[in-house]
């Protein structure tokens, strides 16, 4: 069973089908494939990884229209890939997993869903890190009488034209939303807790000649992809290996502020106090110009409360609004999805990670959870390149695990706790010297224990190398038990 059908779950389904596996089902709570690209339909939604790198290596798309794809184009791509590879009949859409519990007696997962119950020998969790919106804990927000919604659940029925709108947050979604709606609203208040560092967005439309070359010139698209990949990998030298090199990136970002923001007071507001790369680096050419529009105000005073028709900041200022857009990110290290998975010792995944910290072995396996694998699990995130590369690496690892289960006739595999602990100790040692730890910020990369449980602290090809084969020596295994037979030869 695969839970979720975004980039990772869809890749797992396709690769299992290619291996001739038919005994699997994909449970997807949405009505279509796509995951975050299905759900995030807010104005201006686009990817910050170049198009040719943000696609499956086994299904390149010569038809990308821009160097950085927009949401709709990525979703169309995923729908097309799912249709082409014939895996849609293995999906159960509009179905949500309500519990997954390991049954020691049967050596299977008892999975309850809104569409019925399943018994699964192996469960692959592909729910993704950016699937559960994080709502801010602000006094009075439940009393707001106007339109209110999270950026990942955009209300397309809401009439924002001519309205007074407040956007809470200045992260990756907000810097796309604000420029997209600033022209149509009467007034736009943008509430910032921490200023982000921005780099130029080198986005452009591909010419007809380029698109023809991608389609018809052998190797041209793969060469373009390889060059993009290599350039992105160089950032690891600054982010993870030698954080002092981030000063070069920061000089570019600081110059961008000087060149694009004329007002000294606003310039001070948008200049971060931490080193670039510590939080997610954002790319935009429209953010600073949008903040300087006469109908836009960047508010840096903390929000004290929300009233039925207004937002009140700590300095006592009351700003009346008609609509409230919450762009406060996602529950990455404390996703509700972890609450419904119960392992061999009776503890949920959420309880396990609250006690020991969010960790896994190669982002794929957790001690105490036999025959369960994770895609986009702990410490597989990136601060520089395409998650699709990491996803394909993990899918290869998990499929090799399934092959090993079959070839060795194993009933269960469960990562050894000592192997997981050793692996994570080394990860945290590497992470300690990265800009994400030394850059002077707090971020959603960190869990409640202060550990970076989100990012991979090395080159992506190093992760590919580490996951190339399923290393069964790191796992406890149990053999399949042949059924007892009666004298007549029937199973007992």
From TrEMBL:
SUPFAM superfamilies: FAD/NAD(P)-binding domain. Coiled coil: none annotated. InterPro entries: FAD-bind_Monooxygenase_sf (IPR051209), FAD/NAD-bd_sf (IPR036188), Flavin_mOase-like (IPR020946). Signal peptide: none annotated. Keywords: FAD, Flavoprotein, Oxidoreductase. Pfam families: FMO-like (PF00743). Belongs to the FAD-binding monooxygenase family. This is NAD(P)/FAD-dependent oxidoreductase. It comes from Rhodococcus antarcticus. The lineage of its organism: Bacteria, Bacillati, Actinomycetota, Actinomycetes, Mycobacteriales.
